[in-house]
Amino acid sequence: MRLIYWLRPGLKIKRWLVAGLMGIFLVSVSISYHLLKFNIVNSNWTSILVGLAGLGILFFSLRQGIISILDFVYYPATLTGRNGNNKLNKKIYDKKFLSRGPKIVVIGGGTGLSVLLRGLKLFTSNITAIVTVTDDGGGSGKLREDLGMLPPGDIRNCILALADMEPTMEQLLQHRFKEGDLKGQSFGNLLIASMNDISDNFEEAIKKISDVLAVTGKVLPVTLKDVTLYAKLKNGSVIKGESNIPIKCLELNSPIENIFIRPKDARAINEAVDAIDNADLVLLGPGSLYTSIIPNLLVKNIKESLNRTEALKIYVSNVMTQPGETDNYTVYEHVDALLRHWLDASIDYVVANTGKISDVIGKKYGTEGAEVIRLTQEDKEKLRAKGIKLVAEDLIDIKEDYVRHDAVKLSKIIIDLVLQWKVANDRNRIIDYFYIRETMKR
User: Fold this and answer.
1) Cis peptide before 167 (omega within 30 of 0)
2) H-run or E-run covering 220
3) Contact by Cβ (8 Å): 206, 159
């Protein structure tokens, strides 16, 4: 088996080993000629024995060297307990491991998306986050109004989730000023605004920031158009602006019927469409249903590419309802909202939470009008009728009294689903058993 792994494309050293052996052979031919010419070796049998001894030594040394390299790359000290340069070892191993992971596109925005990305980057580096740009509140909204740029907040959170940086650097980029004209503004937003000012467009600015922060994968704005989100409520009212929608829904005591964007002809950037076309897996959510996930589907080319791609499609339901957006929604009602805005949708799986929260945490969220999203028997039957498979697990993770998805557990579920799908359906390509084997260990 070790020989099989050695023959697979990897660190790109095998071609140079073969070239080196060819060089040694040619030099040996030349040396043999001169040894015979000057009668240093006067017997064919002697020359054969010397040659065999040289080949034996060469083979043994190369074999031991290759075994040492394979041990270093495939079995890092952090996994086996061996002594060595653990940090360097793990970086080399992870880079090789992660580069073989499935190509995953995640569509959404907000806190939910950034939480999931922190888990997914442990399993693959082939991640593309397509992020909504309709935010018009808080620090992002102020920069959008003052500088005429796209809102950086959700994109900043995704970049930080995928970046390889020290905790102090992340703390700095998330720091919000407490006084003066910059009160409430984050340093990370200002960094993106500065990069946008010296770049040709917002997309280029995000790529430069990603390079500086050593981001795993890609973070892309869904469009470069300055789009505004609108919501039509069931009472007939039309609300303008993402930040106003939940507030007005509560004030008017009317739920959302549908949402739309203006301009309606806003087109997705080409790189986002290409990523969906070439993906193994497309994830929708977690995140705010009407203000983070669905707005991406309203951008031209996104739904078309989702219908065209052969990728597995999974919707990850939120853990908690959101006041003013999804009050009293069950899991299926989230899916139904997606289907109303995405005609001809083809969702393969829904991943939903079955975990509970303590009474103390429940009361805290209850004062804000939020509750754990219910998964009813009726939901299960409706999903089954739509041909959508359900994966239901306890996915709750509570940190500092905030309820979030357990990013690692959720990511393992997602990776397992896409690996099963690849083994069952990806008949035209060689399945990377090394990646599957190592994933089982994590």
Assistant:
1) no
2) strand 218-221
3) yes
Q: Does an H or E element contain 385, and which?
A: helix 377-385
> Stretch 106-123: mean pLDDT, rounded?
92
Separation of alpha carbons 411 and 393, rounded Å? 12
Distance CA 232, CA 340 (A): 13
* 316 has pLDDT over 80: yes
CATH code of 102-132+272-442, in short, is 3.40.50.10680
CA 143/CA 164 separation, integer angstroms? 26
Q: Are 373 and 413 in contact (CB under 8 A)?
A: no
Residues 230-254 as b/e (b if ≥16 CB within 10 A, e otherwise) read bbebeeeeebebbebbbebbeeeeb
Task: Report the C-alpha gap between 53 and 125 in whole angstroms.
Answer: 46
Q: Are 117 and 162 in contact (CB under 8 A)?
A: yes
pLDDT digits (tens, 9 = 90+) for 46-58: 666 766 777 777 7
Segments making up each domain of the chain, as ranges: 2-74, 102-132+272-442
Element of type H or E holding 391: strand 389-393
Asked if residues 186 and 173 have their Cβ atoms less than 8 Å apart, the reply is yes
Are the CB atoms for 193 and 143 separated by under 8 Å? Answer: yes
- Per-residue model confidence as pLDDT tens digits over 251-281: 999 999 999 999 999 999 999 999 999 999 9
CA-to-CA distance for 256 and 253, rounded, in angstroms? 10
Sheet holding 104-108, edge to edge: 218-221, 127-131, 104-108, 281-284, 312-316, 349-353, 389-393
Q: What is the pTM of this model?
A: 0.81
Report which residue type is found at 179. Answer: E
Q: Where are the beta strands (DSSP E) in 226-384?
A: 228-233, 238-240, 256-262, 281-284, 312-316, 349-353
Rounded to whole angstroms, the Cα distance separating 10 from 19 reads: 17
Q: Report H helices in 198-312.
A: 202-212, 245-252, 270-277, 294-297, 302-308
d(CA 385, CA 374): 19
Rounded CA separation 345/148 (Å): 34
Q: Which is higher by pLDDT, 42 or 148?
A: 148
> H/E element holding 389?
strand 389-393
Alpha carbon of residue 348 to chain centroid: 19
